[in-house]
Amino acid sequence: MFGIRSGFAAIAVACVSAMAFAQGSAGDPLGVGRQMLAEDNPGELWVERGKTLFHQKRGPRSASLEKCDFGIGPGKLEGAYAQLPRYFPDTDKVQDVESRLVTCMVNLQGFTYQQAIKDHFGTLDRMSDIEALVAFIASKSNGMKMNVPLSHQKEYDTYKAGEYVFYRRNGPTDFGCITCHGDNGKRIRLQDLPNMTDQKQIQAVASTWPAYLGTKSTVLTMQNRLYECTWQMRLPDLAYLSDLSVAITSYLNHQGNGAVIQVPGVKR
Amino acid sequence: MHKKTGLAWSAVIVPVLIAAGCASLPDEATTRQIAEGMIKVGFSATPEHAKRLVQDKSQQICSKIGDARLTPGEADEVLKLARASIKYPQSGKLAGDWKVGAKLAYNGSGTRIRGGKLEKAKENGALCSNCHVLDPKEFNVGNIGPSLAGYGAQRGNSDATVKYTYEKLYNAWAYFPCSNMPRLGHNGHLTPEQITHVVAYLTDPASPVNRK
Amino acid sequence: MAEPMKIRATLQVDTADVRILMLHPMETGQRKDAKGAIVPMHFIQNVVVTHNGKNVLDAQWSQAISRNPFLGLRVKGARAGDKISVTWTDNKGDKRTDEVAVAAQS
Fold first, then answer.
1. Which residues contact C66 (CB under 8 A, 6 or more apart)?
2. What is the pLDDT of residues B24-80, one digit of tens each?
3. In angstroms, what CA-CA distances link A241 with A136, A244, B45, B113, C92?
4. What is the C-alpha separation between A243 and B39, in angstroms, rounded?
5. Alpha-carbon radius of gyration of chain B
6. Quick one: fold of A13-267?
7. What is the ipTM, given to two decimal places?
8. Would residue B181 be called left, alpha or beta, if left means φ above 0 and alpha means ψ between -120 and 50 degrees?
9. CB contact under 8 A, A234 and B66
């Protein structure tokens, strides 16, 4: 398995898209449904809601998020998500889309940090504002290639820290991310697992989050996915927006570079 | 005036050169320091639960990055530590009741933490079906580990086989260092008594695992 | 619970390909909440789609339709700019209407 570690040239992204949105046929009866879901999934409603919230004057400062800098300039959204996580000089740290959004909610709109992150994970009965906003912001990179930078020292540090954590065996199960995500064709019970040491599969994952999850009936983000992983690994609660969560995301997303973003994805 | 400008320029150029020249992948030791620092503050954990993040010697050895491999010395050390850790049930009987084992084998719950609270469970499940085929009639099973259908039918249920099965369940790393399989007994997820029931589920000729 | 729908209507020659996403819990009345109490029935009972004011679809839905449902239909004899209007009504009497203009073939 050579994957990304031997520095192969970028894999044709068209293959990834074709795989994901296969046409249905007698041999693949679920394909039609999958394609329909890929083109119109309920996550689109989160994107719409996020758009409204983004432009709305909210918080103690009664300001919109229109001046938020997601890495390519204040107010520039097209292509911003594609280059996250990245280093931000004003906070002097590497941030993913979600933590950057919260930075802006605090600095531009005047929310306290606790107010901003309240109810950040949506449920069956309650929609999350942050998830709607992340869905909207990410959708502004649809059709563009993932392009996470590695140039600032903290970006290098964060990337390598994420790799270290990916392989770290921990807890009462001795699991590392590698335990479940290190091989092709594996599944936990009937849930297929992507091999996160294979660039093609990483690209398919990185380019389809945030996603609408059928079992949760809401759009969820990578922050949530990582939280649920560490829960299953019998580790304590992963801290929301922690440097640790951003490091793992950096490690994954950078390897996903070249994938064409198509969000919100739809997953089980 | 010119002198001042010269100094001002060098104040700009030098840091830029340093920034451009020095940004690079950190070495192993630096990475470990940064990552472990992130892990320390990366979880909302009580001091008790935070202990789960501390790696024991074997876990440290087994955290090989990328294509890195265990050295023979490291493999030996993990094997030795694992063998020394094995505890047997008070009764000395290593094969219990396969019917109890059957329930445990498909139970994937126990020891998880959500919102700072430990999962409420009567007992911890053995987690087997998450990764293994067991009773060939059960299809809601994973494939991270090899199929165990017909385990006892193939190997028999001699004392030696039962002992090996017990030990493997108690600490899988006693036979395969750094295996993907959790060290169920050693890590306290299953009691020795529970393990004997899973042993029976695998080895007893009457168990569904071994029926055609 | 009357959140806006998302409706796309694109013209393909003379047929409008209409895709509608609705936000609705579509509770069957059989699900139990975390405390063990039954979550009451709450589902869309009727969906009406009109094309320039004329009914083209009148659907009676039941609890069998899933949460946050998707409805797709094709309307013959459409032209760019035509109005497609969608109205749903649920068993609690909640109603929601949204409309779009048929977009020209791209």
1. C26
2. 999 999 999 999 999 999 999 999 999 999 999 999 999 999 999 999 999 999 999
3. 19, 8, 15, 18, 39
4. 9
5. 25
6. Cytochrome Bc1 Complex; Chain D, domain 2 (1.10.760)
7. 0.89
8. beta
9. no
Q: Of A156, A166, A139, which is closest to residue A94 (Cα–Cα)? A: A156
pTM for the model: 0.88
Per-residue DSSP letters for B21-78? Answer: HH-----HHHHHHHHHHHHHHSEE--HHHHGGGS--HHHHHH---TT----HHHHHHH
CATH code of the domain covering residue C43: 2.60.40.10
Structure confidence at residue A40 (pLDDT)? 84
Identify whether A180 is a catalytic site residue: no
Burial class (CB in 10 A: 0-12, 13-18, 19+), A18: exposed
Query: Domain residues for B19?
Result: 1-42
What is the C-alpha to C-alpha distance for residues B66 and B87, in angstroms, rounded to an integer?
33
Q: Are residues C68 and A42, on separate chains, in Cβ contact within 8 Å?
A: yes
- Along the 212 residues of chain B, how does pLDDT read in single tens digits? 444 444 445 445 545 554 555 799 999 999 999 999 999 999 999 999 999 999 999 999 999 999 999 999 999 999 999 999 999 999 999 999 999 999 999 999 999 999 999 999 999 999 999 999 999 999 999 999 999 999 999 999 999 999 999 999 999 999 999 999 999 999 999 999 999 999 999 999 999 999 97
- Verify that B81 and B36 share a domain, yes or no: no
Which residues of chain C have a Cβ shorter than 8 Å from any chain A Cβ? Answer: 3-6, 8, 19, 21, 23, 25, 67-68, 70, 72
Separation in Å, CA of B120 to nearest CA in chain A: 13
Q: Is B47 within a domain?
A: no
Q: Which residues of A touch B189 (CB under 8 A)?
A: 172-173
pLDDT digits (tens, 9 = 90+) for C69-81: 999 999 999 999 9
- Ordered by start, the domain boundaries in chain A are 13-267
| C95-101 and C54-60 strand pairing | unpaired
Instruction: Give the whole-angstrom CA distance, residue C5 versus residue A5.
Output: 45
Considering only CB atoms, which chain A residues are within 8 Å of B187?
Answer: 172-174
| Residues in C touching A125 (Cβ below 8 Å) | 25
Q: Taking CB atoms and an 8 Å cutoff, what residues of chain A touch B141? A: 189
In this complex, the residue of C6, C67, C70 whose CB is nearest that of residue A217 is: C67
CB contact under 8 A, C3 and A39: no
